[in-house]
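Handout, section 4.2: multi-component inputs.
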Amino acid sequence: MDKIDRSIINTLQEGFPICDSPYQQVALTLNITEDDLLHRLECLLETGILSRFGPLFHAEQMGGALSLAAVKVPEEDFDSIAEKINSLPEVAHNYARNHSLNMWFVLATETLEQQQASIQTIENLTGLTVYNMPKIKEYFVGLKLEA
Amino acid sequence: MDPIDRQIITATQAGLPLVKQPYQALAQQLNISAEDLMQRLTTMQNNGIIRRIAAIPNHYKLGYKHNGMTVWDICDDQIDRLGELVGQLDFVSHCYHRPRHLPDWPYNFFAMVHSKTEAGAALQQQKIADLLGEHCHSNDILYSTKILKKTGLRIKKNVSS
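Output:
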């Protein structure tokens, strides 16, 4: 990753134009050629330095429901509980965290009713209480990490 | 959102084509005109269905190895004002008001912070604490110790409008 790669990452985190030749427009502001930009973007995606490039959708605005939920898992059952929770397709992410609430997952469903049903299913499957923490209000979402 | 908008969402979930005229390429694939596609993307961006068209870096690969979920117990009557302020800090990537689960979980505010060093993350936590002052009763920082599952948010084709 060189200085140009860094400026590409920093610039493209802000946004990308909607026009006939958007890469050319961005390349101009970065003072590189369109071909160079496309090639470098391909490499950044291939090496995983960029995990994605494209439209970022707002799930709730599309009618979907998202929630963050957590459970307290006894250490000895950790792997089997993770397997049970991960088996639900609506579990999008699941992380182990250093807290007594030690397993945190995101539920992505089409409706709130399905979210409730998923929580019930997880409680039945695991015998654990699910702490459901759907957002009440979003103050900021956006990420600008200086490369 | 109509069926064509949904097709656009499905077609771009993996990302935007890396060709000189990406919208033309996408439009062709969807059998609509490039003008129509660009208009629809602009509309979806304006009404918030698309947050933005952008690159998402992998935190770890950029050296941000300390990604903490800071959690806070903030007075209910101050949370909206303070939430907006915390959201303006340049090291906070997401922040939300979420429900408490008393007595085990007293925290009603979540802010994700990102740093290259552990000391840096602790300093970020301290900066938020300074901002919240007396309106915050307690706080904690949780680090992920393992990714157990990570799939892209799968947006289903039949999302009800």
